[in-house]
Amino acid sequence: MFTGIVEEIGMVNAITRGSSCMQLVIGCSKVLSDVTKGDSISVNGVCLTVSTYTATHFIADIMPETFKATTLSYMKRGNAVNLERAMPANGRFGGHIVSGHIDSIGKIADLRKKENALYVDIHIDDSLLIYLVPKGSVTVDGTSLTIINVFDKGFTISLIPTTQIDSIIGQRRIGDYVNIECDILAKYIERILMKQKTHSDGGLTMESLTMNGFIG
């Protein structure tokens, strides 16, 4: 599990590509301070497993499913990437619950400056709009962000100067693709509601509570 607070901007030092898979060599320093083989590190919001490492980089393998579902397939040597280690049990919860499992690829539709803020419009698949609410949370390339507005094609976020500097979202341009992970709590709620509709007992509802004498 991650929190969406980027620890470090790393760099793609090398790529080995297959037809629908790849291996990344990512240069970094901070996230290597306590790394061990098998650790999870979020790379642009994608939970990857450290297969091997040195004092200056780690290597991760990307399987076909991840290759297909994320922007890692577009990666080039020299690209900057957001990095975050998995959250320790005694760590601070600075962002929100982030699984590192990407829901969809979004596209930067507009960028505009207003005072010290950078407003970013991101277009996403229509099926994800149900999970987004103004003032709710969303993860963009592994960065936990607050939704300013939701519209028919996507959503708007606003970046403070610190986020613009400390994560790659501030380097994005119109037309760039980004990894999107919606709030996992919203997905669980939707699942529960769907189960209530499909099961005859209806789950825990006002009607079932009344029928069983719990409320008058």
Automatic annotation (TrEMBL):
Q: Name one Pfam family in it.
A: Lum_binding
InterPro entries attached here?
A: ATP_synth_asu-like_sf (IPR023366), Lumazine-bd (IPR001783), Lumazine-bd_dom (IPR026017), Riboflavin_synthase-like_b-brl (IPR017938)
Task: Keyword check for Transferase, yes or no.
Answer: yes
Keyword set for this entry? Repeat, Riboflavin biosynthesis, Transferase
Pathway noted in the entry: Cofactor biosynthesis; riboflavin biosynthesis; riboflavin from 2-hydroxy-3-oxobutyl phosphate and 5-amino-6-(D-ribitylamino)uracil: step 2/2
Q: Which reaction does it catalyse?
A: 2 6,7-dimethyl-8-(1-D-ribityl)lumazine + H(+) = 5-amino-6-(D-ribitylamino)uracil + riboflavin
UniProt-recorded Gene Ontology molecular function terms: riboflavin synthase activity
Q: Where is the Lumazine-binding domain?
A: 1-96, 97-193
Q: What is its EC number?
A: 2.5.1.9
Ranges of the Lumazine-binding repeats in the UniProt entry: 1-96, 97-193
Q: Does the keyword Repeat apply?
A: yes
Identify the NCBIfam families for this entry.
PRK09289.1 (NF006767), ribE (TIGR00187)
The task this protein performs is described as:
Catalyzes the dismutation of two molecules of 6,7-dimethyl-8-ribityllumazine, resulting in the formation of riboflavin and 5-amino-6-(D-ribitylamino)uracil.
| Name of this chain's protein | Riboflavin synthase
Q: Which organism is it from?
A: Sporosarcina quadrami
